[in-house]
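Here is the promised in-class demo. Please do not try to memorize the tokens; focus on the logic of going from shape to residues.
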């Protein structure tokens, strides 16, 4: 609750651009909590003898980024800048609750190993297992040396809202996975979804990242980690989707990204991660078209 109040207040002072060039996107709208009649942000409710915690937030007009396809370059750039600006705002926020152990935190990716048994066929299971080996041996030691702060941690295309033109991001939802962790995980997660179902995934990543970098600059070490972190997010996603499909088969939303994630993993397996990392780093030193 506190972070949503903080973001609502900080948004009022966010940059909105000027007449000398292309307007900067307004700061992303975030859910506004509506208090109950008793003045509480969260209330208890019972259904079928089960206790639930419920809360209410105000509606934010717009449509999911997932429905604004194809993602035009101006949309990718606007989203990149807006997410970078969100992270600048989040950097100043601190709360004990965000220091937590979360399996969606990229540095905890190896924790999904016990769920690999749900991934079929065996070839796919082996692909994910091999990447988790690489994460533990090569990626995590480098990741631990990078900056940490609070991040949203789930800027996927169903959590980002765009305007009716499909070119301007206007809001971001679902702060349930926010965590104090490595900053570079934020753009990595976003790019993992932006790269799905597009003709040139690396181009889409470059266009987004160059704009993110203009608002919230990453170091060279952080930039070079991005290809591995993108694959890490995809691996965690497909493992948890396979697990959820067995435990909650009636909820289609929980596996909405599974097939696109596998297709992107297949594409990325054909690319040289070091070369992609260098290409992304170069994109941050020039204007992407």
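The designed amino acids, position by position:
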């Amino acid at each position: 609750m506190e972070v949503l109040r903080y973001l609502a207040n900080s948004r009022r002072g966010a940059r909105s651009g000027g007449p000398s060039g292309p307007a900067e996107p307004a700061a992303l709208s975030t859910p506004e909590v509506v208090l109950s009649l008793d003045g509480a942000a969260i209330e208890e409710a019972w259904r079928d003898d089960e206790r639930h915690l419920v809360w209410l937030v105000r509606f934010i007009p717009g449509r999911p980024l997932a429905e604004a396809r194809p993602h035009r370059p101006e949309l990718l750039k606007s989203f990149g800048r807006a997410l970078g600006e969100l992270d600048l705002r989040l950097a100043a926020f601190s709360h004990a609750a965000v220091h937590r152990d979360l399996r969606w935190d990229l540095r905890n990716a190896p924790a999904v190993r016990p769920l690999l048994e749900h991934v079929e066929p065996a070839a796919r299971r082996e692909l994910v297992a091999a990447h988790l080996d690489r994460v533990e041996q090569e990626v995590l030691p480098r990741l631990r040396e990078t900056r940490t702060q609070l991040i949203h941690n789930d800027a996927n295309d169903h959590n980002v809202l765009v305007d009716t033109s499909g070119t301007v991001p206007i809001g971001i939802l679902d702060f349930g996975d926010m965590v104090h962790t490595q900053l570079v995980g934020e753009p990595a997660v976003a790019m993992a979804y932006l790269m799905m179902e597009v003709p040139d995934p690396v181009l889409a990543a470059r266009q987004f990242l160059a704009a993110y970098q203009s608002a919230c600059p990453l170091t060279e070490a952080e930039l070079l980690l991005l290809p591995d972190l993108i694959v890490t997010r995809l691996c965690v996603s497909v493992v948890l989707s396979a697990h959820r499909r067995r435990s909650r088969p009636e909820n289609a939303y929980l596996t909405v990204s599974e097939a696109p994630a596998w297709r992107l993993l297949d594409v990325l397996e054909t690319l040289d991660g070091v070369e992609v990392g260098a290409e992304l780093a170069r994109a941050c030193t020039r204007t992407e078209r």
